[in-house]
Amino acid sequence: MKRTIRHLARVVGFGLALSAIGPFVGLPTGLSADHAVAKTKHPGKRLYMRRTCVACHGRNGKRAIQDYPNVAGQEKSYLLRQIMDIVEGKRTGGLNAQGKPRAEAMRGALVTPEGQPRITREEAKQISDWLASLEPAKPNPPKDLKPEDIAAGEKLYKKKRCQTCHGKKGDKPLKGYPYVAGQKYEYIIHQMQDIRDKKRTNGKTKTMFNFVRKLKDDEIAKIAAWLSTIDRTAK
Ligand code: HEC
Ligand code: HEC
After folding, report:
1. Which ligand is nearest to the CA of 188?
2. Considering only CA atoms, which residue is closest to atom 8 of ligand 1?
3. Is 153 in the pocket of ligand 2 (CB under 6 A)?
4. Which CATH number fits domain 2-132: 3.30.565.10, 1.10.760.10, 2.40.10.10, 3.40.605.10?
5. 147-229 CATH
6. CB-based contact 213:201 (threshold 8 Å)
7. 20: buried, middle or exposed (CB in 10 Å: 19+, 13-18, 0-12)?
8. Pocket (CB within 6 angstroms of ligand 1)
């Protein structure tokens, strides 16, 4: 599916790609990119639709496909750094089910086969401004998480002093650092493992490395269990 999206986007441009994947991402069938755009005002939203972000991160950045991250309500300057790092190939990550570095899925859609970015920094900034202004997704943890693992995850999070940078419940990060509460379970696990294993080394990941360096996979899973249940929309 992903390969088809990418191929279409390359060959015929985004308009057709969007109508082809429309049913898949929940867009009403027959709705063209331009129709979707006409209803919106924020230039960041328009770009989000046109640059195919919606295909993978979902409507309003909160209905991402597979294990891809929710991006709505994420910290503004963090968003911009990540988009640019992925486009520039500085953030790659561990391997996905297809045996490719995880961030390649996104880079493939945003960079031409000749290596030309399909998005400018200014456009990425407008998209980041818009995404940061949105309400985050409701938590959607796996149904089979064990209550005792969630409780153990909360304890580990405190013991490992994750709150120093991400806030007490992952919901009050330092400026430029990511919110981690309410993020998707699988995604949290992958990122913690990638940072621990130095497969993700972009940006400020180095500051986090010492805090995850000794964590075992089952401890990471427990922390992810807890974080994935936290509702950032509840105030
Ligand atoms: C073909 C699918 C795909 C497309 C299109 C795509 N992304 Fe992504 N995006 C991903 C994947 C997969 C990741 C996670 C990579 C990883 O696991 O390391 C990601 C990660 C991100 C992140 C980092 C999130 C975080 O919490 O660190 C941001 C921000 C982001 N994408 C924004 C965008 C924007 C904006 C666009 C459009 C300009 C876009 N993406 C287009 C698949 C996609
Ligand atoms: C010293 C500060 C610091 C500490 C402590 C820290 N982190 Fe991080 N964490 C970061 C930074 C900075 C990033 C983003 C790296 C970048 O710039 O790309 C990050 C990224 C993450 C991500 C990926 C977020 C995303 O959207 O991709 C997760 C999940 C995470 N941290 C969880 C944790 C957990 C759990 C702990 C405790 C075991 C922890 N962090 C401790 C600084 C920290």
Report:
1. 2
2. 106
3. no
4. 1.10.760.10
5. 1.10.760.10
6. no
7. middle
8. 2, 51-53, 55-57, 68-69, 71, 74, 79, 82-83, 93, 102-103, 105-106, 109-110, 119, 127, 178, 190
Q: How confident is the model at residue 141 (pLDDT cuts 50, 70, 90)?
A: very high
| % pLDDT > 70, the chain | 83
- State the closest ligand 1 atom to the C-alpha of 91, by its place in the atom list counted from 1: 18
Among residues 33, 26, 37, 31, the alpha carbon closest in space to that of 12 is found at 33
Ligand number, closest to the Cα atom of 107: 1
Predicted TM-score (pTM) of this structure:
0.88
Considering only CA atoms, give the Rg of the chain: 18
* Structure confidence at residue 40 as a pLDDT band (50, 70, 90): low
Tell whether the model's pLDDT for residue 21 goes beyond 50.
Answer: no
Distance (angstroms) between ligand 1 centre and the Cα of 21 equals: 17
d(CA 14, CA 223): 38
